[in-house]
């Protein structure tokens, strides 16, 4: 079994035709499904939040069989993720894609349980602290993408679970929990 | 016999005919009795044999296949009925029905990938993996037997020979001679190109492309435009399983 770091690659990754978009509908559906699962799985285990279509990405080429996905194939597979709510395009040109291996709602739930676990119910934290502070170390929140974090926080704010406010420094924002 | 005239002559001739017929019937009856006796002896011996080697038949695939062969030669099918004597004695009916169900499951599960055509060897391996408890106990012969029993269901399960390999078909696709020849050609590397098909089979390009298009439509082939020579390759998952294709291309 071929590996990427500690990530086990599925068998189809070594079968050359999976790197060419298949013209027949049924075959292509199966192909897209396999790739969709692989991309999501890889991003979840390797904590990848953004995939840029035209940049190097370990899954987009397999040097062992000398195959790589062309841009059309990359966009097709990522679009499949977007259509089921597991990813979002960051730009109109579809060049950058945000991967949501947890949906925004799930991220919001993770934040809530993090708050409860650490007794932060009425506390104030900065957004950066949630991402990289001591409290979040060892949780899934640690090192998470800022865009996704802000989206999850806004969702919680909408539900009245917290308030977002401008912090003292211009580039950071604060969060007041009221769970 | 000299032909004698008159009614007496006719009567004598009729009596002689009756005598001959009686004698003939006696001889025939004797033969049938002897035959019946032999068959009974044979049957009891076969039963004795089966009883004695019950465990071998169950556990040892080679022995099992030889036993089947022997039964087939004398016109006995131990799998004909699950309620019959053989099944009760050996329990092999259930064994093959179980295999049959597992084979159907595997064929369905791999169909999206291989289009409903799977290499018998790969099927056996998957079957063994699924039956972890007795990994060695299933032979190719057992698979073939179980598949032949599936035919009764009319579900289109069939074993076809392509070149040296046996493929199990679980979709009602009819493969014609052209398709078979392409599959046979593909066994060498797992893929073919249009050029190769034209050259090796001396076909026109239209014939090659038509046949390949149908194989694509049926989900039996996948295209690969990624090789550096720029020639489109047609891969056939049924002749080269994904796992065994590693390194085939490099």
Précis, in short:
Chain A is of the alpha+beta class. Chain A has helices spanning 25-46, 71-83, 104-117, 127-132, 146-158; strands at 3-4, 7-8, 50-52, 61-62, 67-68, 87-89, 96-99, 124-126, 162-166, 173-177. Chain A has five helices and ten strands.
Care to describe what's here?
The complex is a heterodimer of chains A (179) and B (250). With 179 residues, chain A is an alpha+beta fold. Chain A has helices spanning 25-46, 71-83, 104-117, 127-132, 146-158; strands at 3-4, 7-8, 50-52, 61-62, 67-68, 87-89, 96-99, 124-126, 162-166, 173-177. In chain A, strands 3-7-6 form a three-stranded antiparallel beta sheet, covered by helices on one side. A three-stranded antiparallel beta sheet of chain A has the order 8-10-9. The N and C termini of chain A lie far apart (46 Å). The mean pLDDT of chain A is 89. Chain B is built from ten helices and six strands, in the order H-H-H-H-H-E-H-H-E-E-H-E-H-H-E-E. Chain B has helices at residues 6-52, 54-59, 61-73, 85-90, 92-114, 120-130, 140-150, 177-186, 194-201, 205-217; strands spanning 117-119, 158-162, 165-169, 191-192, 222-224, 233-235. Chain B is mainly alpha-helical and 250 residues long. A three-stranded antiparallel beta sheet of chain B has the order 1-3-2. Chain B has a three-stranded antiparallel beta sheet with strand order 4-6-5. Chains A and B meet through helix 1 and strand 5 of A and strand 5 of B.
């Amino acid at each position: 079994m071929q590996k990427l770091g500690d990530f086990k690659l599925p068998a189809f990754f070594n079968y050359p035709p999976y790197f060419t978009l298949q013209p027949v509908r049924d075959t292509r559906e199966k192909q897209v499904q396999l790739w969709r699962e692989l991309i999501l799985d890889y991003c979840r285990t390797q904590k990848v939040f953004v995939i840029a279509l035209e940049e190097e990405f370990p899954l987009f080429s397999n040097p062992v069989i000398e195959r790589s996905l062309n841009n059309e194939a990359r966009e097709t597979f990522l679009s499949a993720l977007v259509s089921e709510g597991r990813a979002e395009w960051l730009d109109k040109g579809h060049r950058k894609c945000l991967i949501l291996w947890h949906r925004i709602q799930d991220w919001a739930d993770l934040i809530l349980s993090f708050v409860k676990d650490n007794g932060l119910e009425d506390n104030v934290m900065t957004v950066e602290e949630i991402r990289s502070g001591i409290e979040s170390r060892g949780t899934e929140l640690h090192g998470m993408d800022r865009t996704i974090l802000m989206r999850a926080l806004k969702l919680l704010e909408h539900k009245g679970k917290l308030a977002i406010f401008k912090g003292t420094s211009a580039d950071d924002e604060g969060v007041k929990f009221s769970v | 016999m000299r032909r004698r005239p008159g009614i007496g002559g006719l009567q004598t001739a009729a009596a002689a005919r009756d005598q001959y017929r009686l004698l003939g019937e006696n001889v025939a009856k004797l033969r049938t009795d002897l035959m019946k006796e032999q068959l009974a002896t044979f049957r009891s011996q076969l039963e004795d044999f089966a009883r004695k080697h019950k465990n071998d038949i169950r556990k040892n695939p080679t022995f099992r296949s030889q036993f089947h062969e022997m039964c087939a030669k004398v016109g006995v099918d131990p799998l004909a009925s699950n309620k019959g004597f053989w099944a009760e004695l050996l329990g092999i009916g259930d064994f093959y029905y179980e295999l049959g169900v597992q084979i159907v499951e595997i064929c369905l599960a791999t169909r999206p990938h291989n289009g409903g055509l799977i290499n018998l060897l790969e099927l056996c391996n998957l079957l063994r993996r699924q039956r972890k408890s007795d990994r060695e106990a299933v032979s190719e012969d057992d698979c073939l037997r179980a598949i032949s029993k599936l035919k009764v269901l009319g579900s289109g399960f069939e074993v076809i020979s392509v070149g040296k390999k046996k493929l199990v078909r679980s979709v009602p696709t009819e493969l014609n001679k052209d398709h078979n020849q392409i599959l046979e050609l593909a066994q060498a590397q797992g893929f073919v190109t249009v050029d190769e098909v034209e050259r090796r089979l001396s076909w026109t390009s239209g014939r090659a492309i038509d046949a390949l298009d149908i194989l694509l439509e049926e989900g039996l082939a996948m295209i690969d435009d990624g090789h550096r020579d720029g020639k489109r390759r047609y891969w056939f998952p049924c002749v080269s399983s994904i796992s065994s294709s590693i390194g085939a291309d490099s």
